[in-house]
Amino acid sequence: MNTTFVTEAVQQHDIRAHTISLLGPLVSAAGLVWAILQPDRITLLHPHGQGFWWLLVEPPLLLVAAGIVFVLVVARPLLADLERHRATTR
Amino acid sequence: MQPPAEMVHWLFAVGILFVGLCLFAEALAGREVWHMRRWRKYLWPGLTFVLGLFLWPVMAFFTNSAIHMYAHGSWADALMLAGAAELGLVHGRLTSPLWRFTWPLAFVVTGTAFIVHEQNPWFFARSAFLHHLIGWTFIIGALAPLALAFRPRSAAFQAAFAAVIVVVSIQLFTDRDVAPIFGHLSPLAGQQHR
């Protein structure tokens, strides 16, 4: 096989793997930035007088959690499978 | 004990965001790699179905008006249908490609319901603006799953489908019960909070 095609395929594969690995951290980072810009949204920082739902549902923390869960549950196993797939199709 | 409406929007936003992330990851990795683990191929269709199920309590408890109940009920139906059809397709139980049209149908039903059940104009308050915006995003965004129904292996169309879902999730996160939009807040909307 032409080595140029192989190199291009490997580079494209690396870009895809990189993008997948960035999805979760980007979402968590967005949550952190939101928490810094609007700290009043984190009612755990000032819990006095807050109701049940305001203490339970904190949107910036939901974003951080979604990013972490995505990395652990989806991205890591998917990246391992992507690597395994590349190894078998080499 | 009922949560404020904005919190319900945020909770759904998280679920929708997760579906969008999974779709993006599948588009990037390719369907062959995505299906290498059995549980993963059922992940986002299953989550969609569950989101549809959770819309039923929303319909039952948020009874501001009859049109709200019809809207939430029709979303529940449309989401459950799209999720179940996708589950059937990935499992191999459903083989007709026509089942792929449940997604554009769900988008159009959802978009129409969003627009119809918002009885206030765009600049009444932020939530009114967002309901109009989300409705039109769904209706125009239905082109992505429609294109995907014709070209199911297209990574570009799947990425577009994911992008629409992530955009809707961001819009849901910006929802507030009573807040201005671009400086506009109708005095009829009530007292602004948070």
Poorly predicted sequence stretches spanning 5 or more consecutive residues of chain A: none
Approximate helicity band of chain B: over 70%
Separation, N- and C-terminal Cα atoms of chain A: 11 Å
Beta-strand proportion of chain B = under 5%
Shape of chain A: elongated
Number of alpha- plus pi-helical segments of chain B: 9
Helix count from the secondary structure assignment of chain A: 3
Please summarize the sheet with the most strands of chain A. Answer: none
Q: Give the tally of β-strands of chain B.
A: 0
What characteristic shape of chain B results from the CA principal axes? Answer: elongated
Question: What does this protein look like?
Answer:
- The complex is a heterodimer of chains A (90) and B (194).
- Chain A is an all-alpha fold and 90 residues long.
- Chain A contains three helices and no strands.
- Chain A has one domain (24-89).
- Helix content of chain A is 79%, strand content 0%.
- In chain A, helix 1 (3-37) packs antiparallel against helix 3 (59-89).
- The longest helix of chain B has 26 residues, at 66-91.
- In chain B, helix 5 (66-91) runs antiparallel to helix 6 (102-117) and helix 7 runs antiparallel to helix 9 (155-173).
- Chain B is 71% helix and 0% strand.
- The two termini of chain B are 19 Å apart.
- With 194 residues, chain B is an all-alpha fold.
- Chain B has a single domain (5-189), classed as Serine Threonine Protein Phosphatase 5, Tetratricopeptide repeat (Alpha Horseshoe), CATH 1.25.40.
- The interface between A and B is medium-sized, with 25 and 25 residues.
